[in-house]
Amino acid sequence: MDSADHRIAQTETGSAAGEPSAPATALPLDGGSDTDTKVETIHVEPSATGARGGRRIVSTLGTDLIGSLQSLLGTVVIAVFVITFIVQAFQIPSESMMNTLLVGDYLLVNKLCYGDRGAGRYLIPYQKIARGDIIVFHYPVDPKQHFVKRVIGVPGDKLRLVNKQVWINGVPLPEPYVRFLFPSDNMFRDNFPRLDVPALGLEGKWWLEMRKLVEDGQLIVPEGHYFVMGDNRDDSQDSRYWGFVPRENIIGRPLLIYWSVQTWDRDPAASFSGRLYHIAYAVTHVLQITRWNRTLRLVH
After folding, report:
1. Which one of 53, 114, 167, 252 is CB 3.0 to 4.6 Å from 109, fit for a cystine?
2. What is the SS3 string spanning 10-36?
3. What pLDDT score was predicted for residue 273?
4. Which of 6-10, 61-65, 116-120, 189-193 has the highest mean pLDDT?
5. Residue 275 falls inside a structural domain
6. Where does residue 105 rank: exposed (0-12), middle (13-18), buried (19+ CB within 10 A)?
7. 250, 243, 244, 247: which is closest to 148 by C-alpha?
8. How many structural domains compose the chain?
9. Could you tell me if 113 and 237 lie in one domain?
10. CA dist., res. 294 & res. 165, Å (int)
């Protein structure tokens, strides 16, 4: 083997061993002269399994982990912002709004629609709270609880009920959404306000306050307050029994029913295993217990 062949063999051996190759001089072809020889430099990258490559892999994993944590944190921040200021999910636990809202309906509530206070009212087209609106609010007697009712009287209204019929400012209020269960046989519930007949479940503080706000048999709704009632009119603890809803207690207005589920078990066991079984049953029978005709229905 001549010297030129020897140089090529060395280059190939060095490459196979994973070592950087020295520059190799191409041999003249077809009897060409040495002056026609071109020089080609061959570079070999360090092995991925070497020390530098190992550091690169660790660095990449660390960067990916930090990026994932940042993404998760960003998602949490956005979720908290949305729940705090824009929309929030609520569940209907009682029958007071039947048949408009049923037990087991899950609502998305718009928390921005009534935010008409401050400079923001010039930037966002807020709504005024109107008679007939369904609202979610902090229960005035216990603000930790959330109630959902329909607005019947707004500030300045003169309100009364005569044989279940609501009259506002001397005019009967059309209420196609109302559901009645019993005949007109409850003097306080069906003929409101009554100052001579107390009722079961009536808040004592409201009983005293109401006397100051009744003129000519009509209840006057004060400024900054709202009179609310349930659509299931004969089975609703509402403003007749505990008073007005202050403006600052109102959270927002329901947008839609994003899921509705049948109440397959009204009294799940209080133990941990009982609650676990309750959840497991719901997850495994979600198709059967879902009210598909109510899911994604707008609330009005």
Report:
1. 252
2. HHHHHHHCCCCCCCEECCCCCCCCHHH
3. 80
4. 189-193
5. no
6. buried
7. 250
8. 2
9. yes
10. 29
Q: pTM of the prediction?
A: 0.69
For residue 209 the two structure tokens come to 């306050």
Helix H or strand E encompassing 172 = strand 171-172
Buried b (16+ CB within 10 A) or exposed e, 37-68: eeeeeeeeeeeeeeeeeeeeeeeeeeeeeeee
CB-CB contact of 229 with 243 (8 Å): no
Query: Are 188 and 250 in the same domain?
Result: yes
For residues 7 and 120, membership in a common domain is answered with: no
- Calculate mean pLDDT across residues 269-287: 79
- In a domain? residue 27: yes
Strands 171-172 and 165-168 come out as antiparallel
Give me the percent of the chain exceeding a pLDDT of 90: 52
Q: Which two tokens stand for residue 208?
A: 């005293």
Q: Which domain holds residue 11?
A: 3-40
**153 and 13, same structural domain?**
no
Asked if residue 122 and residue 31 are part of one domain, the reply reads: no
Measured CA to CA, the distance from residue 102 to residue 260 in angstroms comes to 8
Using DSSP bridges, classify how beta strands 105-110 and 87-91 pair: parallel, antiparallel or unpaired: antiparallel
